[in-house]
Every structure is written in structure tokens, then in C-alpha cells.
Amino acid sequence: MDKHFTDFLAGEVRSRRTALGLTQRDLADMAGVSERFVRFVEQGKPSIQLDSLVAVLDTLGLELHLTTRTSHAARTRAGAGRAEGATS
């Protein structure tokens, strides 16, 4: 998972939780996840269960939205194509 994304997600979850006056334990209990999981999300740990993350976000009234962008694979292929063209 991209470090920028996990840092952003961590900040958003922490900010929303504190704005709602919830402790990590409160949020964990309400979302049906462990307090450790909430800590991991707020620390930006890159390996987390998606279904648990969705439960935490739902509890906080947050949603995860996906948008289309150029994929890493497409950028890599485009770069390889330019490099091949430069050597011809």
C-alpha cells in the first residue's frame, strides 16, 4: 500500500475519531474490531484487513472512494516504451 495513502488514511481516521470524542477502545468496540487494529490504522500500518477497515470507516461516518488514475503498470510500460524508442 502506498505510504502517502496510509498516512493520509491514518490522519483522517484519528482526526474523525477524536472529533467524535471516541477513544481507540470505543471505536474498536463500536466497529467490532480490536483496539490493536484501530492503533494499526492510526499508525498507518500498510497491512490491514479491508473488511475491518470498512467497519471502522463506517462507524466514523467515513467512506472510501476509488477514482480512476493512470496505473503503476501503465506508467511503467509507457516509460519502457520511451526508453526503447530512445535507443532506436
TrEMBL record:
MF annotations from Gene Ontology: DNA binding
InterPro entries listed in its UniProt record: Cro/C1-type_HTH, Lambda_DNA-bd_dom_sf, Tscrpt_reg_HipB-like
Domain HTH cro/C1-type: from-to ranges: 13-67
SMART domains per the UniProt record, alphabetical: HTH_XRE (SM00530)
Superkingdom assignment: Bacteria
Classification via NCBIfam families: couple_hipB
Protein name per its UniProtKB record: Transcriptional regulator
Lineage: Bacteria, Bacillati, Actinomycetota, Actinomycetes, Micrococcales
